[in-house]
Structure formats: C-alpha cells, structure tokens
Specification:
The complex is a heterodimer of chains A (about 110) and B (about 120). Chain A is built from no helices and eleven strands. Chain A is globular, with a radius of gyration of 14 Å. In chain A, a hairpin with a 2-residue loop joins β6 and β7. By secondary structure, chain A is mainly β. Chain B is mainly beta. Chain B has no helices and eleven strands. In chain B, the strands form two sheets. In chain B, strands 2, 4, 5, 6, 9, 10 and 11 form a seven-stranded mixed sheet that branches. The chains are: A mainly beta (about 110), B mainly beta (about 120). The interface between A and B is medium-sized, with 29 and 28 residues.
Chain lengths: ~110, ~120
Amino acid sequence: ILNVEQSPQSLHVQEGDSTNFTCSFPSSNFYALHWYRWETAKSPEALFVMTLNGDEKKKGRISATLNTKEGYSYLYIKGSQPEDSATYLCAFPEEAAGNKLTFGGGTRVLVKP
Amino acid sequence: EAGVAQSPRYKIIEKRQSVAFWCNPISGHATLYWYQQILGQGPKLLIQFQNNGVVDDSQLPKDRFSAERLKGVDSTLKIQPAKLEDSAVYLCASSLGWAPTYEQYFGPGTRLTVT
C-alpha cells in the first residue's frame, strides 16, 4: 500500500489571498501525479496530470509544481476566490499499467469573502 | 460531451439490506473504476474494468460486494448485505485508457448511509 499524504488537511483563506499546500508521494517508481478538485455536491474534476520532474502546470489562478526526486508536489492558488472552495486531492498511480490511483486524504480549502 | 452518470445520488438503507448503484461512463471510455470514499479520507479504488474484464479488484470485499460491466459500457456495483461501515460516497470514473497519464473523469457519486 503506497503512502500518499497531503497537508494541511484543511485551511481557511481570506478572499484575495494566495495559498499553497503539499502532496508527498513515494519518490521511487514514479509514473505520474494527478491533481483533482472536488467541490461539494459536484463531481471530482481533473486539474493536472504531471509527469516530468520540474514540471509546472497552470490553469487560470491555479498552478502546480513537481519534484519527483524528493517526492512532493505543491498546488498554488493565487488570489483565492470563494469559488475555489473545494477539496483538492492528489493521486499517485501504483504501477506503469492499470492507472490504479492511490489518493491522498485531501486538503479542504475554504475561501472566506 | 456528456459526463459520467451515476444513480441514485443518495440512498439510505438499514444494515443487512442490499443496494445497487449504476454507472454510465463517457462514451468510448474503455476503462471504468469504482471508488469508495469514506468521510475524511481520499477515495479508495474498489474495482477497475478494462472493457468488460476486471483488471483489479484486490480491494473489493468480495464476501459482500460485487460488480459487473455489461457489454463493456454500463456498470453496476452491489452490496449485499450492507454493514454500517459501508456508509460512504461511491464514485464511478472512466478514462480513455489505462496508462498512468490518463486523467479519470468522475461522476457525481452516490452517498450511501447505512443505519
């Protein structure tokens, strides 16, 4: 069983502030790292699939970085808005084939107006 | 493009009863997944299908859970009999393929409460 950890478990952010949080994963046998956003009462939505060490991806005000050698990824939200309130999940494929994802426990973000 | 459909959205049953969930994946997606998400935890894979064959069911409690994928399209997940600890959100997801770089598309989930 792989160990995928996210921290913090939850955070409150004032509207307009920027924030970031971490996903740590096994640094050996890296295949990819997935980030998903899950808003209440909606379907989890894919944000990024990251594959290369040093990769940086951006989607609007959300960006992510990847360090496969040390086994961590950061997700950044710039200028947080209330619609960014969600649980952010990272997931690590266990093997080269099969796309069996092990998810972290998530970081629950609440943006206060 | 229509997303992944799931029904029902909510279900309340008593322990020892049975329940079934239905999933219709995105058209053309060969790979289908069922996840269980217990409050406060990340989703846990229960079973993965490639077309209508099972790829991985190592975390499926086979004494009470069963799943099938009819003709490689729709899928049903059944629990019989249910236990209190089965209370969770059951998510269905699909992807074009099963390489680690394929993103998975999720349905809205079924929230199951077992009393």
